[in-house]
Amino acid sequence: MPIELGHFALILAGTVALAQAGIGFFFWRIGGRITSYLRQAAILQFLLVVASFMALVQAFVVSDFSLELAYGYSYTLQPLIYKITAVWGNHEGSLLLWIVIATGFGAAVAFFGKNLPSDLLALVLGVQGALGAAFIAFSVFTSNPFTRLFPPPAEGRDLNPILQDIGLAIHPPLLYVGYVGLSVCFSFAVAALISGRIDAAWARWVRPWTLGSWAFLTLGIAMGSYWAYYELGWGGWWFWDPVENASLMPWLAATALLHSAIVMEKRNALKVWTIFLSILAFSLSLLGMFLVRSGILTSVHSFASDPTRGMFILGMLFAVIGGAYGLFAWRAKSLRAGGLFAPISREGMLVVNNLFLSTAVVAVLVGTLYPLVLQAVNGTLISVGAPFFDLTFGLLMAPLLVIIPFGPFMAWKRGDFVGVTQRMAGAAGLSLLLAVILVMLSGESVSLASFGLLLGIWVGLGAIADIVDRIKLGRIELSQSWRRLKGLPKIAWSTMLAHFGLGVFVLGVVSVSAWEVERVERIAVGESIEIAGYTVKKLDVSRRLEDNFVAEKVDFEVTTPWGWVSQGSSEKRVYTASRIPTTEAGILTYGFSQIYISLGDVSEDGSRVVRVWYKPYIILIWLGTVIMAGAGFLSLSDRRLRIGVPKSSRTVPEPAE
Amino acid sequence: MRWLLVALAVFTLALPALVAPATAIEPDEVMDDPVLEARARAIAAGLRCLVCQNQSVDESDSSFAKDVRLLIRERLLIGDGDRQIMDFMVERYGEFILLRPYFAPHTYVLWFFTPFVMIVGIVILLVRLRRRKMLQARPDDDIETSLTGSEKKALYSLMQSDQQREEKPE
Prior knowledge:
heterodimer; A: alpha+beta; 5-stranded antiparallel sheet; B: mainly alpha; 2 domains; elongated
């Protein structure tokens, strides 16, 4: 019964969404009562979808195998948390989660958007309604999660063991919030194009949604990367897998959008481009959805699927891209160019940033889609893998990293390149000094990696130098500097943190790529492997019986170069229901570095191949991204950017930056 | 993801030298000659494991990957060059095995599209810059000269008060 109720709630939500879309599009000019109706509709739609999602969760928790989905992806002996996460460990359920988040964003716009002009709000909610209706139709007609099974089987088929991990509770929800949040930027862009209201205020209204989605997307991708790192058992953290690329493209587009929206907000320039990016970012989210759910790719992430699903998303993709960009082509000409600026200026730097980031989107897009297109055109099967992306993406990112610190230093409108270079000389010198010291300490010869280090330190220190420069540290009295420091707007801090996080990330990437050490040896109990000064000793082998899997566990004792002794263990598991084997790596963390131990095959004499990696400073990769996301949230907490605030004219004047 | 190092390689006009990638290589596979071994590893990192999901032959512990790794080493011992071995693999398994496709007519679009977009982007920016400069050359478009004396005064006092606001802590 609850399942039918959930099913019904979902269909009802779809009709509400449809009504919301129709009324929004046709009566947006009326505003007023229409808008308040639309706001109620958006919230109602969200509540209905949540109810239907809860029905699904309930069926999984009580292991109701008369629900086909619960039978396919659940198992009575799973721990409760995995019973719940199994709801979105499959295509149909994850789509419903996606819809929950999408309608949640619609409801959030309705809830927080009280102070938006009523015609703009009506249009935004109309577009959100249309998207919601399309997603719900996709779910109900092609991927219905509420299909029943009769007679109900006694036991379920269990969730893919790789997914039985806390990662599934964290990674998809975060990522979906990011993907779907971009739909709000999209709706705002379409609403702006229809209503013709495109100005600095618009940029300010959109900014929190961009920031939020970007921060969640950053976290989602980073968590996915860490999950893959510890779960897949071969120690990589980014594989240029098409599905990873599908998440990287919206991220790059959202990063570009974040920066161009600043120009639009502060200087009323780059309007057309910002609108273009808003549409692009969400289109790329949808493209990702298509790649994952159409079955066109084989990947760890892809769901078993049938062609109608692919066609449905493709149709939606064409409607969204075609419709929005058609509107864009029609209306963009009517936009008046905004504030002028010299090429050497903050705006100019942000334009260059956007040039690199959007070209990077193109690089990833081409690499991801080209094999598919080529195969469709003449049947030639090629692979485009890590070596291709390393080259093209890297070529684009290195110069971008060099110029990043210059951006915040530049003045708006007209910057002084020589002056800025002089003011940054300190940071540059210090970076060079630090890089040289680090390389000398590490005892390595000067290599590419040392330049990588330099680049990472430069980006990180450059970010801090901006703050130091703003408070005129050392140039005026310390107490005055302190006062300026306290008076700095949050946006200055978040810029600094985000760029600093990027520097930290780069350091992690460089050090793990260059100084990772690997040993593969066949060892028996009591023998050990020496790696980068660490000693990994194999202690004993035991068997572990859990409710839903059997594990062979190998304990290790790791002695650090400075004499600490700690223990870890690696496992090979076989899951009872699915008979699928998995490897659980043993990971020991020392500061920012890790020892990663993975088990290979056993030979007849009982010895076993053991792979050990020393991963220097690998934690910095994820720490850096978490800092970046944190910077996003910090900026989001800035009172001046809160939705609704733009109404007050008092807040408009910006402190000169 | 070694894009950063590769980037730096080209950026500093040096050659990518170091980098020991993660691997599934087994102890008995390793060759005695470290130079040959390094070449074997590099070749393996550029080949797709055909029975895996997006893993290179170097990373995978599947039996297919192991066979290919051994095959690479056999060819190296015979004295084949890197390109010869790649060609051999392509002949045997199809071009799909190459993680970085050949530079050939059917991949021109793949290789040239990104630089093309970059160049178009730069050209558009330069054209706009020129047009803007021409606009600025006309005095009417310059805001400051088109203001009356009293407007200028008002603007100046506004800017002054803004600066004072900045000096004061919030």
